[in-house]
Amino acid sequence: MSPDEFNRRIEGFLVAMRKQLKQALTEVLEGMVQYVRSSHPYTDRTGALTRSIHAEVDGLRENLLTARFIADAPYASQVEYGTSPHGIDSPVFLKGVGWRHIKVHPGAPPRPFMRPALEAYRGRLPEALEESLLSAAREVDL
Asked: How far is residue 66's CA from residue 72's CA, in Å, rounded to a whole number?
């Protein structure tokens, strides 16, 4: 193989690698999103928390591929990690009782929904990334 041919294949590999890595990362993160949406332990009265769960994968910039696995409802962290007793001084709806005005919320237990997805998919990401690199190499015959 000539140096020019080698350089051409390496350039092709880099293009294929970026595409394959982004695709693999997107597939793993979308699997995590579906996992959370189908197995969350919280009661979702409005659907807002479930709808707020999504993944974002950015393109490769400066040799950095960034991705986010997000639940961006304002109260997502309170559901995930729970809350301690805190003052609210507002009306709340109590199941079986109706609306009542309370000054102190008793707190809420944690209902992890993001962490279980991370644990369930922990081993899949390295496997998917490795396969994407091998696929990119096969694509350009390296």
From this structure: 17
pTM over 0.85: no
Partners of residue 70 on adjacent β-strands: 54
Q: Write the DSSP symbol of residue 46.
A: S
- Count other Cβ atoms within 10 Å, centred on residue 3: 7
Q: Which DSSP helix (H) or strand (E) runs through 106? A: none
Could you tell me which of 136, 140, 79, 142 has the C-alpha nearest to residue 112?
79
Q: Quote the DSSP letter at residue 74.
A: T
Query: What are 84's two structure tokens?
Result: 């301690």
Per residue in 54-81, pLDDT (tens digit) is: 999 887 777 778 889 999 999 999 999 9
Q: Which residue has the tokens 């390295």?
A: 126
Closest to 24 measured CA to CA, from 140, 129, 113, 138: 129
Q: To which residue do tokens 């998919």 refer? A: 121
